[in-house]
Design a protein that fits this description.
Layout: H1 2-20, H2 29-32, H3 38-83
Amino acid sequence: MFVRTLPLRLSVVIIGILLCAPTSALACATCFGDPDSEMVKGAQAGILFLGVVTFGMLTSIAGVAGCWALRARKLAVDADCESHPS
């Protein structure tokens, strides 16, 4: 019985070692390459672009919420003035 499971156990151990072994062949050129390469510069430009788009969208959403808050406050003041004429 032990003889039959030995190749299976051995193959599981070998596959586990190969999966857990860190190798530089698995890394891309952007992570471990030349910091002045065109690929790294392109990745940095992409990250900057996504940051600008995200900041712009969040700022726009905050601006719309602020406009709605001002409009609601003005409507509340107008309704209060109409209900309590001086």
